[in-house]
Amino acid sequence: GAVVSQHPSWVICKSGTSVKIECRSLDFQATTMFWYRQFPKQSLMLMATSNEGSKATYEQGVEKDKFLINHASLTLSTLTVTSAHPEDSSFYICSATRGSFEQYFGPGTRLTVT
Amino acid sequence: KQEVTQIPAALSVPEGENLVLNCSFTDSAIYNLQWFRQDPGKGLTSLLLIQSSQREQTSGRLNASLDKSSGRSTLYIAASQPGDSATYLCAVSGYSTLTFGKGTMLLVSP
């Protein structure tokens, strides 16, 4: 149990366009979902925390108008990168919890902005 | 602010060796500590989770220890295999967030 999926697994988009990444908890209801970003050879950096039905809490330095997070249900959170630029190219990973402190991670989404 | 450091950054060993990966953290007020494995271009696989009240956890050839007071954890891998080659990440849990180290990139050669 505790499987988290992400879609798409990779995406290429042109600079200036927007791209949406989905994170789903497949076999449990996620009270909280997290979005991380990982640059090559770097650690995972938390971008934002979202709870179903409420606004996401963004980490310092993360532009909330650029990285839109919608947590519409207990099994789905979406991250939309708006007006993407090449520097947004990264590996985006989501995770979900079901009430405890343990986070279950998705397989990640590789975003390349050309 | 919690900071997590992993040493070494990279490690290359021949198959069969026992090895130790180190993780240190600056704030000992943690709920738990996790070790993850990450293969290139992939997500995270949870290996071991140690609650703050525990001293160690074991799973197969893996053993993780936690010394919360000194802010240290080690991951011991016994009889390493080429399939163990990956990046190993240490993460500590605060109230609602995980703070990750940069990882140790392990290469086990046949």
The overall average pLDDT of chain B, rounded, is: 94
Query: What pair of chains forms the biggest interface?
Result: A-B, 22 and 22 residues
Distance between the termini of chain B: 41 Å
User: How much helix, percentage-wise, in residues of chain A?
Assistant: under 10%
Report the count of strand segments of chain B: 11
Structure description:
The complex is a heterodimer of chains A (114) and B (110). With 114 residues, chain A is mainly β. Chain A has strands at 4-7, 10-13, 19-25, 32-38, 44-51, 57-58, 67-73, 76-81, 90-97, 104-105, 109-113. The model of chain A has no long low-confidence stretch (mean pLDDT 92). In chain A, 32% of the residues are buried. Chain A contains no helices and eleven strands. In chain A, a hairpin with a 5-residue loop joins strand 5 and strand 6. Chain A is globular, with a radius of gyration of 13 Å. Chain B is mainly β and 110 residues long. In chain B, 0% of the residues lie in helices and 58% in strands. In chain B, the strands form two sheets. In chain B, strands 2, 4, 5, 9, 10 and 11 form a six-stranded mixed beta sheet that branches. Chain B has a five-stranded antiparallel beta sheet with strand order 1-3-8-7-6, with no helix packed on it. Chain B is globular. Chain A binds chain B through residues 6, 32, 34, 41-46, 49, 91, 93, 95, 101-108, 110, and chain B through 4, 31-32, 34, 36, 41-44, 46, 49, 89, 91, 93, 96-103.
